[in-house]
Design a protein that fits this description.
The chain is about 30% helix and about 20% strand. With about 90 residues, it is of the alpha+beta class. The protein has a single domain, classed as Diaminopimelate Epimerase, Chain A, domain 1. Strands 1-2-3 form a 3-stranded mixed β-sheet, sandwiched between helices. The longest helix has 14 residues.
Length: about 90
């Protein structure tokens, strides 16, 4: 999700390719990116958690997902990990 087009087309293609390659592995892994201009008063933690849950990142049943969230004007970022990824990549 990048309504203000901060990410280049090349970056978006790389994320899609990463997800495509990882979807074929025995231990599937899925990544999402959410970039906005502002959090509009919300905390980065709340936005990251609610978005990750709404998008259901990490393949149903596998729970291997990572969401990278950035708010450009607020200068905030967060990596939200699913339970099964948290031991490998921390929030």
């Amino acid at each position: 999700y990048d309504p203000d087009h901060y990410l280049t087309d090349e970056t978006i293609s790389q994320i899609r390719e990463l997800n495509n390659v990882n979807s074929k592995k025995s231990e599937k892994f899925q990544m999402g990116v959410y970039v906005v201009k502002s959090l509009d008063g919300e905390t980065i933690e709340t936005v990251a958690n609610e978005t990750a849950r709404a998008w259901k990142i990490g393949y149903s049943g596998d729970n291997h997902g990572v969401l990278i969230v950035g708010a450009v004007q607020d200068r905030k970022s967060r990596i939200e990990t699913s339970n099964n990824v948290a031991g490998k990549i921390t929030d």
